[in-house]
Amino acid sequence: MPTRELLEQEYNKLKEELLLNLGKIIACPSVYDASTIAPHIPFGKGIDSCLDTTLKICDDLGLKTFKDPSGYYGYAEIGEGKELVGVLCHLDVVPVDDGEEWYDSPFKLIQKDEQLIARGVADDKGPTMVALYALKALMNLNFTFSKRIRFIFGTDEERLWQCIYKYIENEEIPQQGITPDSSFPVIYAEKGLLQFTIEGSGEAITLKGGGAFNVVPSSIIYTGEKQEELAKELSRLNYAHTQNTDNITVQGKTAHAADVENGINPISRLMTALYNIGYHSPCVDFVAEYIKESPYGEHLFGIIEDEDSGKLKTNLASVNIDEDNAVLSFDFRIPVNTNIEALVSKLEGITTPYGLRYRFYDSAPSLYIPKDSELIKNLCAIYHEVTGLDTTPLAIGGATYSRAMQNFVSYGMLFPDSGHSSHQKNEYLRLRDIEPAFIIYSKALAYLGQKIEKQIIHDL
Ligand SMILES: [Zn+2]
Q1: How many A from CA of 334 to the centre of ligand 1?
Q2: pLDDT digits (tens, 9 = 90+) for 390-407
Q3: Residues 159 and 277 in one domain
Q4: What is the pLDDT of residues 188-212, one digit of tens each?
Q5: How many angstroms separate the alpha carbon of residue 181 from the centre of ligand 1?
Q6: Structural domain of residue 201, as residue ranges?
Q7: What is the spatial distance between Cα 378 and Cα 64, in angstroms, rounded to a whole number?
Q8: Which of 96, 243, 254, 345 is the most exposed place for a label (fewest CB within 10 A)?
Q9: pLDDT of residue 430
Q10: What is the CATH number of the domain that holds 205?
Q11: What distance in angstroms lies between residue 90's CA and the mean position of ligand 1's atoms?
Q12: 206 and 338 fall within a common domain
């Protein structure tokens, strides 16, 4: 295991080049772009050029590289041996919303107040580049890898993960590894994800609102009948709303579905108020009787929770009802010890009497690596040795690539006081986080790249 002193020297030698190359991949606007999709460019030109640029950097660093001929992913590898260790990264970024005011172009890496700022600098280009140069430090120190270490670059993480599924279909699967796309010390549990719709035949009412499965909608507009009566009921319930000349807007509060309790759902509020003033339909009745205001699905199943990952969370993401169809869409974050099939059959038992059908949309398995596993204990020990900070492993409701493969955990590179800026305007990476993360990743890759899997805590 290389000493901290040696790794600090390597960091000082490499940091300028690291930032230069980070700037290069930031400058590729790797946002999904349907208008530039072409054969072998499945997600558009920005993402493709980012993948090419990253693989070129890896080539120059002395790694063996490979680009999937269909353009879904690439990887870069070093070391010898039968066993393979993975580092799962992603190069795609979320779009910049119109009207978002950034200090400068989101695709130009700038430094301001001890922060690096750009789209993707925290999620996930910065952590990718830091982990890559942490590997370069080991190469410079002539570290002997008795396993191969492979950086796998995904390109569709922010949408449908098609890249990583394609990788799994076609390529060698690492026996274990890390995903530098979350927080330190380490994520040992990620909830299961289930997205689905509840569908019925058309209803007399027209009700449309909400959007992406994983977002609590911010508001919904009602244009139907009985607006006076509805406004009165909304006031009686203390539900924020605005009455306009020919419609009513019910206000909610947006939040990520993983943190649904921080939001307020305007769809269930509107449907509850409609129900109370005597409007009945299968969807309205189902929402008013079983969804209500709880973010935890307790009226459907009672409270479901476990010690490792907390409570079940439920988000009613959108409603689309007209005379032809009725569709409600939901996003559930499911505790790791809960059986998803059992949950679905219970749900069907509730919706069927309303004449409503369950329809699967998407899912992701939960992730759970025991806190006392060698992988978790050693990664925590490395983090503690470098930072001296608390090493209690974390459980999250969000999803990272780690759950796509067995024996993977998300590891950094946010520190407890770094703050979260992913997907937001002026996304940042604190300059002072780079060196400790670099040293942690170097040590972690040295640990993962050696054959000995026993406790290393005492050798640190
Ligand atoms: Zn990410």
Answers
A1: 20
A2: 999 999 887 888 989 999
A3: no
A4: 999 999 999 999 999 988 999 998 8
A5: 5
A6: 192-364
A7: 28
A8: 345
A9: 98
A10: 3.30.70.360
A11: 7
A12: yes
